Amino acid sequence: MIHPRIDDLLSRVDGSRYGLVIVAAKRARQINNYHHQLGEGMGFDEAPPPLIESRSKNYLTMAMEEIARGKITYHVPA
Q: Which residue ranges make up each domain of the chain?
């Protein structure tokens, strides 16, 4: 079984799979950048740390878990 479920994730974004992919990919890149900055001793201005505890080491899975738990919000620019 896939966790979190796609239905749960779609209800957190605009209802389209495209929107879900864009939000999850952007957040996964932020988590990746955060982990790279840890090794370089840089600040965390552009890359916030993961917002949840996850058993997964996969950044995309972490991003989707954050979306499912309502930790990530977004808005469409006008």
A: 6-68
